Amino acid sequence: MVNEFPVSIDVEKKNKTEKILANIYSLPAISEIMHEASRMLDDPSTSTVDLARLIGRDQGLSSRILSIANSSLYGLPRKVATIDFALLVIGYKDTKNIVIALALMEAFKTKNDANLNYKSVWVHSYSVGGVARKLATDLGFKFSGEAFVAGLLHDFGIPVIHKYLHSAFLNIINSVNNESKTFLEAEAINLGLTHQEIGKLLGERWNLPASLCEVLAYHHTPELAKDFIDLVCIVHVADYAMKLSESGGSIIWDQDISLSQFACDRLKIDEEVIVKFMVEYKMLLDQELQLIKY
Fold first, then answer.
1. Rounded to an integer, what distance in angstroms lies between the CA atom of residue 66 and that of residue 82?
2. Please, what are the domains in the chain?
3. Which has more pLDDT, 186 or 121?
4. More confident residue, 5 or 177
5. Is residue 175 within 8 Å of 181, Cβ to Cβ?
6. Burial 124-144 (b: 16+ CB within 10 A, else e)
């Protein structure tokens, strides 16, 4: 992967980080129910009733899928009260990706501390996913469901650092607060890798779709994207939009995020358009964040 920042990478730290990540690879990241749901979603003979019965055994998964199906993302005039209806609303392809995304987020859920709050991470992830889906729809792209999942997972590397590389996490915070480093620069210095690269490494190891891996790898640097450029740009803009918003969907990791001119040119938008979009979407997003399950 291309070195993204004008800082020298400590190869020893990079190797150490990769060794720790290698141990994470073998963790049971997806619960038995989520693994079985993913398998069933790959089987064209699976019935909605059977899949709904399986998902219904996991209360947390069920409540989140119902929350998503009832959100403005799908714009239904009536409440989605059952899992089988939710599956029809979301669609099998998007449901599979959502199940995997929720499984990974749950597997790497961290204990709250002064530097990272899991609820804030979830709110930010959900918000970026929602904004990405709405942007994709408004701009005429056909991947709005994928944009939601990509937004949901884009910062997956951050809780991984917090949970498994905690001393480096604290050093990163210190570098940002006391050495005027950006978070990505501080990650590169202290880990030899950024949360983008960590997310991509883990995503590839768990066979996430290539499009999601590219978002994980380049959501701060969309000009480096190769195959799914529009999707990466959409998530980048959605991430930046949450920095502008007061909807509770921003995290300290994005305090120094800057809007990519490349992404703006690619999507044919500018900051004024993004601000207007968030003004119009903010009330709807605030309402959703009151209802979504954490």
1. 7
2. 11-26+111-291 (1.10.3210.10), 30-107 (no CATH)
3. 186
4. 177
5. yes
6. bbbbbbbbbbbbbbebebebb
Distances in whole angstroms, Cα of residue 86 to Cα of each of 40, 89, 105, 122, 146: 16, 5, 20, 21, 17
The listed range with the strongest mean pLDDT (59-68, 74-83, 161-170) is 161-170
Token pair of 163, please? 């949970």
Q: Please, what sign has the CA dihedral across residues 280, 283, 142, 274?
A: positive
* pLDDT digit string, tens, across residues 149-165: 999 999 989 989 998 99
∠ CA 266-271-277 to the nearest 5 degrees?
Answer: 95
CA atoms lying within 13 Å on the CB side of residue 42: 9
> For residue 252, what is the DSSP state?
G
For residues 184 and 222, is the Cβ–Cβ distance under 8 A?
Answer: no
Sequence-distant (6+) residues with CB within 8 A of 248 are 120, 123, 127, 286, 289
**Paired tokens of 103:** 């499984």
**What tokens appear for 61 in the block?**
């998964």
Is pLDDT at 269 greater than 70 in this prediction? yes
